[in-house]
Amino acid sequence: MNTVSLQALADYRPTAIDAALRQLLAPLGGIETFVQPGRKVLLKPNLLSGKSPDKAVTTHPEIVRAVIRLAQAAGGIVSVGDSPGLGRPEQVARKCGILQVIEETGARFAPFTESQPVTADGGTFHQLEIARDILDADVIINLPKLKTHQMMGLTCAVKNLFGAVVGMRKPRLHLQAGADKEFFALMLLELAEQVSPALTIVDAVVGMEGDGPGSGDPVPIGALLAGRDPVAVDTVAGELVGMSADQVWTWKVARDSGRWHTRIEELQLAGDALETLRCPAFRPAKSTDAGFGLPAFLRTRLKRALSARPVIDATACIRCGHCVDHCPPQAMQLDQRVEIDDRLCIRCFCCQELCPKGAIDTRQGWLLKLTDRSGH
C-alpha cells in the first residue's frame, strides 16, 4: 500500500520544523531514500505571487529552508524554482521570503524561463511543455501549500505541479480546456505524472480557506504531510480538511478515471493520527459549477444560473490591469473600470487568483446557490 505520513507542527519555528520533518520522513525511509550524494535536486514550492508568508499564499520560507538543509546534508545539489502566476520569478521569490532562504543556504534559484516539449504516450494531452529545470533534475521534491482553489476546489500536491508550465503557457492551457473543469483536471493529473516528483511534502501548518488560492483567509491546520504519490497525498489532504472527492476536481477525475490512491482505505497512513489532526471547521471555496453531468445544450442555456462568475469590487480595484493581461480568453478590458464579457468568460478564475488586492469576488448563479444550500 502507498504510504502517506502525517506530522503535527504548530508553528514555523526552525527547530520545531527540523524535528517535525525528520519524524515525518522516517516512515518513508528518511530523506536519504530520495536524495543521494551528487544528485541534482529541485524543490518546487508554491510561488503563486509576491505576498508575505503570513498571507498563506506561498509555501512558508522556513519549510523551504529546512528541506534544502536536509537535501544538502544527504549530499544533494539543490535548486529551488517555480513559475509564478504573476510577476517576475526573482521578485516573487524575494517578496515571499524564499529567495533570501536560497541565498543563505547556498542553493541555486531556478526561475523556470525555458520550456521543453515532452511527449506523453497514451495520455489525452499528447504533448506538454515543461520547464527545462524540471527535466534536468535527478530528483524533484514537490513542496505545495494546502489551500482552497476557486476553480479546482483544492490546490495541493497535484495542482502545485502546474508551476512546471512556464509563464504565459499556463493561460493557453486554461483556454484549451475552456469551461470544462474535468478536462483541465485531467491535464493537471497527466502533467503530474510527467513531472513525477520523488517526494511531496505539504505545508499545512497554516493553510488557506475561503476564496483561495490568492485571496482566501489563513487558517491554522497544524500539520505536515508527505508521500511519494501526489494523488495519494491529495486524498489525505482532502480528508484532513473535511473535503470530499466531489468537491475537488483533480481528486474526482483521478477517482473516476480509475487512478490509484483516491480512497483513504487504499493508503497506509503513518505518523500522527489523521483523526487528531483534522481541521473541523475548514471553509471551502464557493462552489463554481453545478452543471456536471448535464447535457451540453442545458449547460449552455443555464450557464449563468448553474455557475459562478468573477465580479469586480470597484472599491478595492486599483485598475492595475493584471487581470486583463492574464485573462486566457481575453474576456476582460480596462477603461474607466474593469469590465468582464460574460459570454467569453470561461470561469477559470485566473483573474481572482492573481488579483494583488483581492478585488475580484465570486458570485454564484441562483441555481448554484440552491444546490449549495441543499447540500448537493
Overview of the structural elements:
The mean pLDDT is 91. Helix 2 (61-73) links the parallel strand 2 (40-45) and strand 3. This protein is α/β, with parallel strands linked by helices. It has two domains: 2-277, 3-Layer(aba) Sandwich (Rossmann fold), CATH 3.40.50; 296-374, Alpha-Beta Plaits. Strands 1, 2, 3, 4, 7, 8, 9, 10, 11 and 12 form a ten-stranded mixed beta sheet that branches. It is globular. It is 33% helix and 23% strand. The two termini are 32 Å apart. The chain is built from 16 helices and 16 strands. Helix 8 packs across helix 10.
Low-confidence stretches: none
CATH topological fold name of the largest domain: Rossmann fold
Query: In CATH terms, what is the architecture of the largest domain?
Result: 3-Layer(aba) Sandwich
Supply Rg: 20 Å
**Structural class assignment:** alpha/beta
So how many helices?
16
Measured between the Cα atoms of the first and last residue, the distance is: 32 Å
Work out the helicity level: 25-40%
As for the number of domains, it is: 2
Name of the CATH homologous superfamily of the largest domain = LarA, N-terminal domain
Give average pLDDT, whole number: 91
Q: Provide the β-strand percentage band.
A: 15-25%
Shape summary = globular
Total beta strands: 16
Q: Indicate the CATH class of the largest domain.
A: Alpha Beta
Largest sheet at a glance?
10 strands, mixed
Organism: Geothermobacter hydrogeniphilus
Pfam families: DUF362 (PF04015), Fer4_10 (PF13237)
Protein name: (4Fe-4S)-binding protein
Keywords: 4Fe-4S, Electron transport, Iron, Iron-sulfur, Metal-binding, Repeat, Transport
